[in-house]
Amino acid sequence: MATFTVDLLTGDIYLFNGDFTGSGGSTPTSGSTYPEVNLFSDLPAPILHSGEIYVVRTGSGDYILNRKDAGLYFSTGAVWRRLGDTPSYFKSDNFEIYDSVDNTKGVKFITSGITSSIFRELKIQNSDGTIAYLTDLDSKVDISAFADYTGNTAPNTYLSISDFDVYSGQTYSLIQGKQDTLTAGAGIDITNNVISTNVYKPLQITDTSGGVSVNNIQATSIVWDNVVYTGTSLNFTGGSSIYIQSDGVYGLSYNINLSNTNNTIKNIGSIIRKNGNTDITPMSSASINVDSINDSSNNNMSEYLVTLVDGDYIELNVFRIGNSGMIYTVGNGSWLKIIRKE
Asked: Is the pTM of this model over 0.85?
């Protein structure tokens, strides 16, 4: 490979086409010195010296924009391309931004306080603006913008919709159409534009009479005659049906107390149906009355969640799943509770 050397007396740079081999007495087979110029601007036209190398002895030009460092330059035939290491434009003690009118003033970056092997990032917003320091806030903010503010709340003039009359965009149109309309939602009441929460209340009803024979294959709907609590979004006016008045999720639970009247074992099942023909809970229990007169049992179900809509009605149905024979509901022993959950 070719070898470069520098004449320490003259400073000339030489290229040797052969390699040094052997001991100190060896000499290159041939060699030449590169033409030299003082500045990059002194280089001849590259098209006239394609493939040749020149030496620029002195760096010139401003950093970043048009800096031409000293060194070897190779002509591609179109341009002079510098050979060697990366120019030092971006070193912190070289890099600067100077004023386009007065180049005696500008900005430099100090990076000495950054941890080694770390490059910090400065993100620029997608807008124009002036950089300010935290210490500038007290003096830079135009406090005259708040001169009309004199109390704990904004003056009424800031809240009047007439202040926005000149604005004709979509946002104003939406405000104009909704400003006098408030719509109640689940668990919220609005009266005269006053909003208040409405906690759902359970409906709990009982059968105070009892005495209904339920040991039949065809289900018997329990008839209720006493309202203990009046529920929200529910309607009950007597009989066996509770009507739903609002779409939502409802929690259902009940207890049925039954009494045997003869010496045969009785098995009774129970289920809640919707609209007379749709079972919406599992058969929660099957009570057994053993072979004993006046023996009693209970069918009960802890809270079970179902989805119901406005217009649905529900009933509690009881039916025989065992031996025939008389078995009755017990007065004040049966209840059903329903409450809207969401």
From this structure: no
